[in-house]
């Protein structure tokens, strides 16, 4: 597939800021500053000049299709991100369920996560709150430092839901220049903080942290996916089709493979090897037959890895701008933090992002990146892993101390290191965007139709995070964020997923001084606005006229064009545009002397002719991009179907477990709710509330559940527990003392909580009065309540 490069008519012609700068430097502006137009009028003129909504020619129709397609890709990317998160969650939970042999009712607790229908649209009932949230999210979007600070404060367990809101909602329009630039500004702040707090050069950008997860998630957006597909898909598919191509070079695995083949050829009577099985890794590496098997594999691997590298290096100009700009920040921050660091060491950090977080995950798991239709077979999968290791070794200048067998491909590093370093440095050579962002922000502050498609729970969760960290985010109580949150009041509780819905949240700023200061910084006068609006209207008029119309002949006479349009009675819209264009041309005369007026009209004519000349090539580029993105959109939709099939696999697994392990005397459907398996429409049987059951402290200590008791020995006999299970997978533990009406403490334990503690290696839970062994507690609860339920 051809590499995707976002193209628009505005990118092929001078921007408004460039136009203003050109006209100022040319001396055509009158020394007398005239009164500025209102910001709304300025926005109207600029948006008309930069869009094609007022024209219905072939280019305008193609651009509309492209805009609609980009919006669909952004929306579908968010849906896929949510599905991938759920699949990862269910995958880890079911693995823990199997590992810990949890009772069937408790598996139902996990199974309910599978019943996640697509979130429906709705409307926010409280208009005052809606306005408040619109103001809050506009502030978050336009001042990325708040989001950057929160990112640094979150744990790995919290980061995914936060990234969902940031990457796919607040900055969810993945092809919109302003949102992309604001998101990159946030990345700059996050990276700067990461470098400021770093204690060791070697650990930078390599540890699995919320910041690294954020960087990885950014590469999974539409532009990054398009690049990966265009650069890697063909070669990965070719390699995946070679099922018998065994490129294993780990001597121990090669030895085992040769032994297995020999055993099979001899029908179970193993032919003698020069070293008997089993062997150590060192002995396998010294075996002549193993070395002979590895030699041609190394040669093939070097050839394939070089072809991958050449394709990646040759794709430099196709790498998405945002990814290259992040590389640029990494280089700049590294040189500032460690000024004496050699260039090759700086390149290893750039490679840690570009290869470790972007390229290599797609090579190792191409099915997850929509580069292949299904999971590659074992041999191609291993070959792809080795190629990724070689590319990462090249980017990092690895010596393969942990995997000595990889030294056999060290020639790949030695031969390509200068080539790789040049590529990594070239990645960083992109211009900054700050001037363009300033103008984009000026326009956005004046617009009335900026909005987010956002769920209620995304709003409430972000509100809760801001409230939790307000003292860090905005210590000044008079700051805008503090004022907004104070007006918003307490954070509402998050809704159950079944009650969550999506709304259209209009964004706006209540701080008008911000608009005025930004407008003053741009220094755009009434004459500039007239010039821009006249140019926009005249281009629209000419594009609306037949190509054979005499007024389109070169050189253009702008007054003639406007007069012709104004005198067209059969097209009232065109007539109004012509009349307005004549007004604008006449108004321009009032702002310049005769000499300047002539120069200004000449400049206006030149720019109109220049832009018209570019329209044909722009249309061709738009059509190319449209074709590429249509393929990307189809791939993203296919991936969505794949993720849904994964969820169906989990459903099938749980269904089979119940059928195989359920009681024989009655139907499993009488005991386990059907909603988690068959969906809505059937009544879910009620699950009885079990307990509370009383257990003494001594009994739980004997079971190994309690490992430490902080109650004095003479009072231990008065300590006891009530444990109940209101629903499968939920346990209420109440610690009581004889003679007291109220319990000392009550703990609500979810199956997920216990499983996650075990999965994270948490052995004990401190309940103040007693310390509990988490695995033993899980075993005890499973044994007690599964027996009572059945």
Automatic annotation (TrEMBL):
Start and end residues of each Ras-GAP domain: 178-396
A Gene Ontology BP annotation from the UniProt entry: signal transduction
PANTHER family, per the entry: GTPASE-ACTIVATING PROTEIN, RAS GTPASE-ACTIVATING PROTEIN WITH IQ MOTIF
Family matches, as InterPro entries: RasGAP_C, RasGAP_CS, RasGAP_dom, Rho_GTPase_activation_prot
Protein name per its UniProtKB record: Rho GTPase activation protein
One annotated Gene Ontology cellular component of this protein: cell cortex
Source organism superkingdom: Eukaryota
A GO MF term: GTPase activator activity
């Amino acid at each position: 597939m051809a590499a995707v490069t976002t193209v628009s008519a505005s990118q092929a012609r001078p921007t408004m800021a460039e136009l203003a700068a050109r006209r100022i430097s040319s001396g055509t502006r009158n020394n007398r500053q005239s009164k500025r137009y209102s910001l709304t009028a300025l926005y109207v003129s600029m948006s008309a000049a930069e869009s094609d909504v007022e024209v219905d020619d072939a280019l305008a129709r193609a651009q509309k299709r492209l805009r609609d397609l980009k919006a669909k890709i952004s929306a579908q990317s968010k849906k896929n991100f949510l599905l991938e998160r759920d699949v990862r969650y269910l995958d880890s939970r079911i693995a823990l369920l199997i590992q810990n042999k949890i009772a069937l009712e408790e598996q139902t607790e996990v199974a309910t996560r599978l019943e996640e229908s697509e979130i429906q649209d709705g409307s926010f009932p409280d208009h005052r709150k809606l306005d408040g949230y619109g103001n809050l999210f506009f502030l978050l979007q336009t001042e990325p430092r708040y989001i950057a600070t929160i990112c640094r404060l979150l744990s790995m367990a919290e980061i995914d839901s936060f990234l969902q809101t940031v990457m796919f909602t607040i900055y969810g329009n993945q092809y919109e220049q302003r949102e992309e630039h604001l998101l990159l500004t946030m990345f700059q702040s996050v990276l700067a903080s990461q470098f400021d707090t770093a204690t060791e050069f070697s650990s930078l950008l390599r540890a699995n942290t919320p910041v690294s997860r954020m960087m990885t998630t950014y590469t999974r957006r539409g532009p990054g996916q398009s690049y990966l597909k265009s650069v890697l898909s063909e070669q990965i598919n070719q390699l995946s089709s070679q099922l018998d191509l065994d490129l294993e070079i780990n001597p121990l695995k090669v030895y085992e493979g040769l032994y297995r083949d020999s055993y099979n050829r001899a029908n179970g009577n193993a032919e003698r090897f020069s070293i008997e099985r089993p062997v150590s890794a060192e002995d396998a590496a010294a075996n002549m037959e193993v070395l002979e098997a590895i030699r041609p594999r190394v040669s093939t691997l070097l050839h394939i890895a070089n072809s991958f590298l050449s394709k990646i290096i040759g794709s430099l100009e196709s790498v998405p701008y945002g990814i290259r700009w992040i590389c640029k920040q990494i280089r700049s921050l590294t040189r500032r933090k460690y000024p004496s660091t050699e260039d090759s060491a700086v390149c290893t950090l750039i490679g840690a992002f570009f290869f470790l977080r972007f390229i290599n995950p797609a090579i190792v798991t191409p099915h997850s990146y929509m580069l292949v239709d299904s999971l590659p077979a074992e041999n191609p999968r291993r070959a792809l892993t080795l190629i990724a290791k070689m590319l990462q070794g090249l980017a990092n200048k690895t010596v393969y101390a942990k995997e000595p067998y990889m030294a056999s491909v060290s020639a790949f590093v030695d031969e390509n290191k200068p080539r790789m370093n040049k590529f990594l440095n070239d990645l960083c050579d992109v211009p900054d965007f700050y001037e363009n962002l300033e103008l984009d922000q000026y326009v956005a502050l004046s617009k009335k139709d900026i909005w987010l498609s956002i769920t209620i729970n995304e709003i409430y969760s972000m509100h809760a995070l801001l409230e939790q960290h307000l003292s860090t985010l905005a210590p000044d109580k008079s700051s805008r964020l503090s004022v907004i949150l104070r007006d918003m009041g307490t954070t509402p509780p998050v809704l159950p997923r079944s009650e969550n819905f999506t709304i259209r949240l209009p964004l706006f700023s209540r701080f008008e001084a911000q608009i005025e200061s930004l407008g003053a910084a741009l220094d755009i006068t009434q004459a500039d606005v007239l010039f821009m609006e006249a140019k926009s209207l005249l281009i629209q008029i000419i594009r609306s006229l037949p190509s054979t119309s005499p007024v389109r002949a070169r050189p253009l006479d702008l007054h003639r064009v406007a007069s012709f349009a104004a005198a067209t009675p059969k097209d009232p819209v065109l007539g109004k545009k012509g009349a307005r264009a004549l007004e604008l041309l006449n108004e321009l005369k009032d702002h310049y002397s005769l000499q300047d007026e002539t120069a200004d009209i000449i400049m206006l004519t030149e720019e109109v002719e220049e832009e018209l000349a570019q329209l044909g090539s722009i249309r061709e580029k738009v059509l190319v991009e449209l074709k590429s993105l249509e393929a990307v959109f189809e791939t993203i939709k296919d991936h969505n179907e794949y993720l849904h099939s994964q969820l169906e696999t989990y459903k099938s697994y749980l269904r089979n477990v119940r059928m195989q392990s359920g009681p024989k005397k009655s139907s499993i459907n009488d005991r386990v709710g059907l909603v988690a398996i068959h969906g809505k429409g059937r009544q879910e049987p009620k699950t009885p509330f079990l307990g509370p059951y009383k257990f003494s402290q001594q009994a739980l200590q004997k079971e190994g559940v309690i490992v430490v008791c902080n109650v004095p020995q003479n009072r231990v006999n008065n300590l006891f527990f009530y444990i109940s299970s209101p629903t499968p997978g939920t346990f209420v533990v109440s610690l009581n003392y004889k003679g007291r009406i109220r319990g000392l403490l009550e703990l609500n334990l979810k199956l997920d909580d216990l499983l996650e503690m075990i999965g994270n290696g948490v052995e004990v839970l401190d309940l103040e009065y007693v310390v509990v062994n988490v695995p033993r507690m899980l075993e005890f609860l499973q044994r007690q309540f599964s027996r009572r339920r059945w």
